[in-house]
Amino acid sequence: MTPYEKLKTARQNGRPTGVAYVNELFTDRIELHGDRRFSDDAAIVSGIGSLDGIPVTYIAIEKGTDLDSRMKTNFGCPKPEGYRKALRLMKQAEKFHRPVICFVDTLGAFCGADGEERGQGEAIAENIMEMLGLKTPTISIVIGEGGSGGALALCSADRVYMMENSVYSVISPEGCASILWKDASRAEDAAQCLRITADDMKNFGVAETVIPENFEQFSETCNEIKQHLVADLKELMKKNTDLLLEDRYHRFRKFGIYEENGGTHGTTLYPI
What we know:
272 residues; alpha/beta; 10 strands; two-stranded antiparallel ribbon; 12 helices
């Protein structure tokens, strides 16, 4: 598929949402609510659970599955209180040295006036800063659309997985086309230029693992995700804290190196 076709697939109705992955992967779940500052944001579903016997903190962006649930979750666009809830759970996980697993599926952070009034940009920036220094292992999985800072706020992790037809981009192709060519209808051209696919992200070094999709056998797909998670968590949990943070630092400071047409190329994609 072309990048634009993969984008449409990532946005497709009926695709499993964050809650579906949480319910399939984790047992003994306790959902936790609220940011202790303003309110509870339904776009972020978070709590504590067990992954194959490993206690973990899970944080998932939820888009909803019908009109009512999508209105409740702002169509998967978290508000500042959602990101602050996620950060509260991350800091709690750090205190008890529980790994953090994030599921990302968002067009981007909520861009309404009330979100800006409550510090949307600051909330995203704080999440990125704190997540990069979190003293516990972190893994993020892009399960659909990973859009802009709204996704990066939950993707500054030790490992990033991407589902086969998921996408990850600094801006939506429609937004990019509107800025570059003053024509949102050129979104397909923008998607091609932005290099947004899971394979692109793996080549750039932004993602480590691409997970094949078979949603007709969703349990089997989740079982493969679980195998990757358990293996990586066992490796990451063996590291002492200083080495964990150093490796994470270098992961995000390095230039991405990718191979194309028989040559090796460099890019400054997502330097922090």
